[in-house]
Amino acid sequence: MARKAILEGGKRDEIIAAAAQLFFTEGYENTSVRKVLEKVGGEVGMFYHYFKSKEELFDVVVDRFFRQFAVDFEKLMASVQSPEDFIAVFLPFYETSMEKYRMVEGNMHWTIRFALHDRTVLSLIPFVEEYLRRIGYRGKYPLDIAAAKLLADISAAIHSESFSGMDDARKKLLLMQLLRDNIG
After folding, report:
1. How far apart are CA 143 and CA 184, in angstroms?
2. 63 Cβ partners below 8 Å, 6+ apart?
3. Are residues 85 and 162 in the same domain?
4. Same structural domain, 69 and 123
5. Per the CB 3.0–4.6 Å rule, which of 37, 90, 124, 166 could disulfide with 170?
6. What is the dihedral of CA 118, 120, 121, 125, to 10 degrees?
């Protein structure tokens, strides 16, 4: 029998909120469907009315976490026309995003921090691809690989100890060099 379409809100949102809290604090492996249901006072059948699996629930939790992040980044990237513009909008966006993330992080389990970081980079690829397309990228890598490589290099830099100790001018110079190295 086909499943009915489920609207947003109600018990479904309660399950998502409870799962987010458990995933973030206890990690994916230590969060069971039963634990989530205990928090919302629900039964197993109710869970499967809304979700096919714990994996699907986790994906929904992560999607909600990133929804506004992606909207904000897309708006910023729409105005970017040059490498200098890219750095000028990317660095403050990253720093603001990290502040928001630190507020959520609290007791976040390392597995979730890793998954969110990975998902962050993946979620930005289409916007960086569009930027590369807009500036006429003609490098040696296919567009999607160039965007992923650029983001991976920037991510490695901004998560390094040495980067956090740099002043803003040095950070911008380093990011510009990474950008030039990746886009030619």
Report:
1. 13
2. none
3. yes
4. yes
5. 166
6. 130
Alpha helices in 28-82, H assignment, sequence order: 33-40, 44-50, 54-78
Q: Is 7 helix (H, G, I), strand (E, B) or coil?
A: coil
* Residue in this structure with the two tokens 């921090």, named with its chain if needed: 113
Name the domain count of the chain. Answer: 2
Strand ranges inside 13-160, DSSP E: none
Neighbours of 59 (CB within 10 A): 13
Total length of the chain: 184
Whether pTM > 0.85 for this model: the answer is no
The per-residue pLDDT for range 93-124, each reduced to its tens digit, is 877 777 666 655 556 677 777 777 787 888 88
How far apart (Å, rounded) are the C-alpha atoms in residues 62 and 38?
21
Residue 181 CB neighbours (<10 A): 11
